From TrEMBL:
<dbReference type="GO" id="GO:0005886">
    <property type="term" value="C:plasma membrane"/>
</dbReference>
<dbReference type="InterPro" id="IPR019332">
    <property type="entry name" value="OSCP1"/>
</dbReference>
<dbReference type="GO" id="GO:0005737">
    <property type="term" value="C:cytoplasm"/>
</dbReference>
<dbReference type="Pfam" id="PF10188">
    <property type="entry name" value="Oscp1"/>
</dbReference>
<protein>
    <submittedName>
        <fullName>Protein OSCP1 isoform X4</fullName>
    </submittedName>
</protein>
Amino acid sequence: MSVRTLPLLFLNLGGEMLYILDQRLRAQNIPGDKARRVLNDIISTMFNRKFMEELFKPQELYSKKALRTIYERLAHASIMKLNQASMDKLYDLMTMAFKYQVLLCPRPKDVLLVTFNHLDTIKGFIRDSPTILQQVDETFRQLIEIYGGLSAGEFQLIRQTLLIFFQDLHIRVSMFLKDKVQNNNGRFVLPVSGPVPWGTELPGLIRMFNNKGEEVTRIEFKHGGNYVRAPKEGSFELYGDRVLKLGTNMYSANRPVETHMSGSSKNVASWAQESIAPNPLAKEELNFLARLMGGMEIKKPSGPEPGFRLNLFTSDEEEEQAALTRPEELSYEVINIQATQDQQRSEELARIMGEFEITEQPSLSTSKGDDLLAMMDEL
């Protein structure tokens, strides 16, 4: 397991979250000033300097529940609210999209180009906010500094760590199903054509060498694919042509996206196991959340501007039905932190636990004009 995986996982999933929210804000005709405020608030919180400092410290990946808690808190960083069903769908779409991108990376190192594509697009959301742009550029520089000098083997370990994290997720996504890149069991279809990784040769030739390193034999074979050479290597600089399209905004064209559980009993069982099995890293996860949440500055809505719900479904009825039919063991619940006897961290954790408490919110209008994406219940 690589201790350098967490920043890449967080930033790419965060980028996918922003793509989805941007699409839903447009689809539900939210006024431009409100939509910009939501994205600006979330991006500003996501790239907060203290938060990034904690994130970039070498550390193991933690459970899906722990990371999910971070995104739920992040999504509530503005005036938008999501209810549980919409939050579940949002997280499902985020994770399946990034899993697909990791699987399709030609080289392990290209996961960094995928990250840069996400950050490039995020900068487009905040082009009129120079202060937030500076935050994102600083994260860019940190990525270049930390990951620019890693070896191919280290990137392979990062990719392996990401695939282990995603291996039990087989949620069907309508967009992937329609594009025939995902099967009905939720597993992705990997292509047998297209550009080969940069710096590699086209398949179809076996060369044999003697003990002096001299080529003695060539054998050609039919590979059954339609491969081409990569036109050039993508840029790993702050600005440049990434060449690779993985990680760009696939929601830029307005397409409805649905998610469905694959129905695999093995998949359900593995998630249930994670939910009920004693977690030997529970204390570490608690400390991890305390550190990250402590660095995350949530801006409280100020002034008379009312909040609104954003619905990730096409109607309130569909959202309610999704909440009723989702298997209980696959639903993400708020993590309860019981740390009253931890003397060393009592003050910090008391503050964190206070932030996690769910408070009753005044009922918000569910009319089409005001309804935005039932945005994550406040912790």
